From TrEMBL:
Residues 55-142 form the Methyltransferase type domain. Keywords: Methyltransferase, Transferase. GO terms for molecular function: S-adenosylmethionine-dependent methyltransferase activity. GO terms for biological process: methylation. InterPro entries: 23S_rRNA_MeTrnsfrase_RlmA, Methyltransf_11, SAM-dependent_MTases_sf. The keyword DNA damage does not apply. This is Methyltransferase type 11. PANTHER family: METHYLTRANSFERASE, METHYLTRANSFERASE TYPE 11 DOMAIN-CONTAINING PROTEIN. The keyword Methyltransferase applies.
């Protein structure tokens, strides 16, 4: 809790915090988020130990992938933001993972049917056609996606409801996209998880780090709304929102008779 600190102090601290990587330890004591019961990192680690070639998409700084106990003989990861790609390289190269920096929204730089398993945690965009292309017949896509209306309370506070954006995240929409790409959905589970922001600095750092939440966010643009929210937290306690998460497993069918 940082109730004794001023609005300006909290905001200045959040603005100076580093944004690279997906390490959220900065939020310790300042924000909390429940975790899904399925344990994505544990599931991913178990699957990686059973395949010969795997790819992690939008790996960030490699934090989640690095938690795997064992990698397959061929293990690759892609990341488009240069600071994160550099972090992932430093973290994963010593363990034999090939990290490839790619332009944002670009095709995957790998041959057709190169991987038994493709994984991703919280991808911003899901390229189902590319995932299907690089998977071998019988291969799987295992991911934890951001669900519809995630952190909607925070989004609505700053920019109002975003029904079109939320619809694109709906499991039914993603299921249809996967099928259109030739993949079969094996498992799809959704959950909403309580988040609490204990001070305005945590809100600012979150919005600067998770940039798709409020895409045009800057402190200057939203200073008055931030100040109002600071006063609200001071008088009413933590700002409560809910993160939406979806566990997705899809399979590329094997040819008939294979």
């Amino acid at each position: 809790m940082n109730s004794s600190r001023s609005f300006e102090e909290l905001v200045a601290e959040a603005e100076s915090a580093p944004l690279d990587g997906w390490d959220f330890s900065w939020f310790d004591g300042r924000a909390t988020e429940e975790r899904p019961s399925w344990g994505y990192q544990r599931l991913m680690s178990s699957r990686l130990a059973k395949v010969s070639a795997a790819l992690d998409i939008q790996t960030g700084g490699g934090e989640v992938l690095a938690g795997a106990q064992r990698f397959p003989p061929t293990m690759a990861a892609v990341e488009s933001w240069p600071p994160n790609a550099a972090l992932a390289t430093k973290r994963l190269h010593p363990r034999g993972v090939v990290v490839v920096a790619t332009p944002a929204e670009s095709p995957l730089p790998f041959a057709d049917e190169a991987f038994d398993l493709v994984t991703s945690r919280h991808p911003n965009t899901v390229w189902w056609n590319e995932i299907a292309r690089v998977l071998r017949p019988g291969g799987s896509y295992l991911a934890q996606h951001i669900g519809p209306a995630t952190v909607s309370e925070l989004v609505e506070y700053f920019i109002g409801p975003q029904p079109d954006a939320w619809a694109r995240r709906h499991p039914d929409h993603e299921r249809a996209q996967a099928h259109a790409a030739g993949l079969q959905i094996v498992d799809m589970r959704s959950v909403r998880l309580r988040q609490e922001f204990f001070d305005i600095g945590a809100v600012v750092h979150f919005l600067r780090k998770v940039i798709w939440t409020v895409p045009d966010f800057t402190v200057e643009r939203y200073r008055e709304r931030l100040r109002e929210l600071h006063e609200r937290i001071q008088h009413e306690g933590p700002f409560v929102a809910h993160a939406a998460r979806v566990l997705v497993e899809a399979r590329k069918p094997s040819p008939l008779g294979a």
